[in-house]
Amino acid sequence: MAMTDFTIISRSMTARMFSTVTTIITVAVAVGLMLLLLSLRKAGEEAFSRGAGNMHLLVSRDSSAMVSVLNGVFYANAPQRPIDWAKYEQMTSTYPIDWAIPTQLGDSYRGHPVMATTREFFSKFQPDPSIPWALRDGRYFDKAFEVVLGSGVARRTGLRLGEKIVLTHGILEEGHEHPEFQYEVVGILEPTGTSHDRALFTDLESTWIIHAHDRRLSAAPNAGRTTSADLTPADQLITGIYLALPTREGSQVPAVLQQVFDMMRRDTSITVAQPGAETRKLFEIIKDMNLLFIGMAGVVMVSSGIAIMLALYNSMEQRKRQIAVLRVLGCSRARISSLVLTESALIGLLGAIAGIVVWMIGSQAAAAVLKDVLGLVVTPKLDAATTLVIVLATIALASLAGIVPSIVAYRTSVARNLKPIG
Hints:
- This protein is 53% helix and 14% strand.
- By secondary structure, it is α+β, with helices and mostly antiparallel strands.
- The protein has two domains: 174 residues, no CATH class; 217 residues, no CATH class.
- Helix 1 crosses helix 11 and helix 11 crosses helix 12.
- It starts with a helix and ends in a 5-residue tail after the last helix.
């Protein structure tokens, strides 16, 4: 039976199975890492932009617009500087606003943030502009001390409708509980694929009552149960305002956005942020970090090319007699050299294919972690052109790595390597 080039190459690779598989795995890891980083960059930006939804402006008293968005939309930390209710009413009556939703952050439940707001949060604001809120079970809150769970909270805590819970007034170790104020779970939301999936939602009055209760206890330790009748203007505080400006039909960008934004920024007592712009700025900031990781993936890929070269080079000593036999059987030096180059390219191809499998597994794992930890639904995607470029670049790099071993094979002496052994 005639021995084809493919037969020679396959036997050469299987004869060094451990070395071949190890080298392919090295290439696969490099390719998978490169594909994962490239696919997560775009998917991550899209996922973060969904959290701000159809809101045009976010007002707070945080130290900067970026911090305001991270705290008010992505629940990074509890805002430290509140806005009084009179300021909220003054702003909503001063500027051309379609809707304004007050929010208050600072409480938590088992580490999950609690947002106190109004029912308009569910009727006006949409975390994903194309998808309205939807309930998996129950209803939205109607009165004080009712709570609605984000889908992630329900999944991680196992809470069900009708259960009573006690919120932590504050965040983690800094907080304290009021067992006398129990909240009833009245609704569980469908997933939105945004940071809001890991939050709980209740009405502002509930939060204000607990704040007022702390105030009353500090003045009189034996104070009775606090109700809405005990509230004073000093208790009616919020930490943020979600704002939407009037838009023309068919447009999502208000014509007066920049004008209103500039007017609001003249008020130095507040911080005004455009969530979409801040999200883009955030990704500009971390772009250098992305380039660093992609550079590291490139280094790993170059290292895999070196691994291919070393694996083939080290095998030359064992294969010199085989090469000499092939020369005697009629194989030219050029053909022998091309066999080594083809084997090197084939290792690169197999590594690239395995790298796509690594990317598929890694992207699913990364998406699951981001969904569980941040509540973000990230869908890593790769366009065919990018994938093809990386596969071809891997094959080219592998072929380049095979040049040195192919030169060694080309220079192999027939007479010296066919001497009798021993």
